């Protein structure tokens, strides 16, 4: 039995607004198994009678028992449940109290967009699944250790094998909970199966869209192998896709293995393990080698590892597709200004690369390490193309003027920082959970501020300028210096470096300048690799 076979997927909503509860049940009746309760007391009764619930969502303001008290009571009874507070009371103190005292994982404001609520519920179900899988595996591991004390010497090898399999399962589930990308999940699966089976010759074919078009993700090659199994000929692969069960080579098997089947194995077919969901087969893990017997414990552990990995992959693919869509929207917004200022070329791509380089260098500096987190770096890289989005509000006569701007024209041009910042602030007010929008707002408002306070539009000085904007200010100037414009030829790298150094302490943050100087050769490589064409 897989670790996730009996794990609850039920969701409990508690709110004294009956119409809201009816609306939520109606909106999500097809996606989720939702139970509702109109008070904290009713919610606790539902917990006793119908629990466990994977996810519990509660309002704050309720008669008799507020949301913090209710969620705290839920935590004492079911500490594995994922707790979410959904409230119309946008109060920082409330959020802090809920985070500290009610053990919640998310704090959402009413009205909450359907997509954000749906993603929160999906993520909550996945978190609960991983928590319960880990708990079940721990219980199995304890049981295996108890059995070890009862068995005699003749069973030591068998018990050791079972314990090894369970420990590997536990470690794999714990590792998955810390992973942030599908590529690392795939690598972890290959490593776990290799350790479990002691077989290194294997291939992994995946079909993320469940469309029978499979791509080989292991072993990797310069040109990834692809195959369409929608018209699979009779044989091994057709049998596995239909039955969705582990296939193990048996000498007496009459199942034909043709040339088509053989192409999916890196050697003599030994075992094939399908990665399947409710909607179909999304992957095939194929092991190759001479015929070999596997114990039931190894096969059960293999099935468990593949099962939990399948769930993790689907979760990461969903999130990555969402982030790719966000990046596409960001790029599209940024290109609104780029199309009106066509001389920028690959400017946006270079800025993202430069920001990544600076963040990497600052992360090694004790003065910046606490702020330059992986999350900060990701937000800055994603939002950097938005820095000049405000140029869409600048007249073409000024934006496209080939010569130097007059004082009056420059004052109008300076408005693009406020226009861009105000635009993104309006978006952030609607979607405050999207940290990259806040970062984009910072760089749009402040990328023309200067360290000594002489910049615009607010005249901010020193650390009052957001760190993201201080980084963007330097890399934006570097790119402008080293690229061709209608009003100038590109400056040599040495001259650009000298200008940046001259601006240290006046235009630029000295710490960021120092980071730039340490990796200036990498800036040159990016400038050459992604130079404008034409």
Automatic annotation (TrEMBL):
4-aspartylphosphate carried by residues: 59
Residue stretches making up the HD-GYP domain: 322-532
SMART domains in UniProt: HDc, REC
Cited Pfam families: HD_5 (PF13487), Response_reg (PF00072)
CDD domains named among the record's database cross-references: HDc, REC_HupR-like
Stretches of the chain forming a coiled coil according to its record: 134-161
Classification via Gene3D superfamilies: 3.30.450.40, 3.40.50.2300, Hypothetical protein af1432
InterPro entries referenced in this protein's UniProt entry, alphabetically: CheY-like_superfamily (IPR011006), Cyclic_di-GMP/3'3'-cGAMP_PDE (IPR052020), GAF-like_dom_sf (IPR029016), HD/PDEase_dom (IPR003607), HD_GYP_dom (IPR037522), Sig_transdc_resp-reg_receiver (IPR001789)
Boundaries of every Response regulatory domain copy: 10-125
Keywords: Coiled coil, Phosphoprotein
Protein name (database record): Response regulator
Protein source organism: Methylomonas rivi
């Amino acid at each position: 039995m897989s670790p996730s076979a009996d794990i609850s997927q039920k969701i409990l909503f508690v709110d004294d607004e009956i119409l809201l509860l009816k609306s939520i049940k109606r909106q999500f009746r097809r996606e989720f198994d939702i139970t509702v309760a109109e008070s904290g007391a009713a919610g606790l009764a539902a917990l006793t009678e119908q629990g466990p619930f994977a996810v519990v969502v509660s309002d704050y303001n309720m008669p008799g028992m507020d949301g913090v008290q209710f969620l705290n009571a839920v935590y004492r009874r079911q500490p594995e449940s994922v707790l979410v507070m959904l409230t119309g009371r946008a109060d920082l103190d409330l959020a802090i109290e809920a985070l500290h005292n009610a053990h919640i994982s998310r704090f959402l404001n009413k009205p909450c967009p359907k997509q954000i609520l749906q993603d929160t519920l999906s993520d909550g179900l996945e978190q609960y699944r991983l928590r319960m899988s880990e708990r079940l595996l721990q219980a199995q591991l304890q049981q295996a250790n108890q059995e070890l004390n009862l068995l005699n010497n003749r069973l030591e090898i068998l018990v050791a094998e079972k314990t090894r399999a369970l420990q590997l399962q536990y470690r794999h589930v714990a590792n998955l909970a810390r992973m942030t990308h599908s590529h690392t999940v795939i690598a972890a699966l290959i490593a776990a199966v290799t350790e479990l089976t002691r077989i290194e010759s294997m291939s992994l074919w995946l079909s993320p869209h469940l469309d029978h078009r499979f791509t080989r993700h292991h072993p990797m090659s310069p040109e990834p192998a692809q195959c369409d199994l929608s018209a699979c000929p009779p044989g091994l692969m057709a049998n596995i896709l239909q039955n969705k069960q582990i296939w193990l080579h048996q000498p007496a098997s009459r199942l034909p293995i043709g040339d088509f089947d053989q192409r999916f194995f890196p050697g003599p077919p030994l075992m094939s393990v399908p990665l399947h969901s409710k909607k179909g087969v999304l992957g095939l893990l194929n092991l190759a080698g001479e015929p070999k017997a596997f114990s039931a414990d190894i096969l059960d552990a293999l099935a468990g590892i593949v099962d939990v990995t399948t769930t993790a992959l689907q979760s990461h693919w969903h999130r990555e597709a969402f982030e790719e869509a966000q990046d596409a929207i960001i790029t599209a917004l940024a290109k609104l200004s780029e199309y009106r200022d066509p001389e920028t070329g690959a400017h946006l791509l270079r800025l993202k690369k430069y920001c990544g380089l600076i963040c990497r260098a600052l992360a090694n500096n004790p003065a910046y390490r606490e702020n330059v987190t992986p999350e900060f770096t990701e937000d800055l890289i994603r939002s950097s193309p938005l820095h000049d989005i405000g140029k869409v509000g600048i007249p073409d006569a000024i934006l496209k003027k080939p010569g130097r701007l007059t004082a009056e024209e420059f004052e109008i041009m300076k408005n693009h920082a406020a226009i861009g910042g105000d635009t993104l602030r309006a978006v952030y007010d609607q979607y405050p959970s999207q940290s990259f929008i806040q970062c984009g707002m910072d760089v749009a408002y402040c990328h023309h501020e200067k360290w000594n306070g002489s910049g615009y539009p607010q005249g901010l000085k020193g650390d009052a300028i957001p760190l993201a904007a201080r980084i963007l200010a330097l890399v934006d100037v570097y790119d402008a210096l080293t690229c061709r414009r209608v009003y100038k030829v590109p400056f040599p790298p040495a001259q650009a470096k000298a200008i940046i150094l001259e601006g240290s302490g006046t235009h630029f943050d000295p710490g960021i300048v120092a980071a730039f100087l340490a990796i200036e050769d990498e800036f040159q490589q990016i400038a050459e690799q992604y130079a404008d064409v034409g």
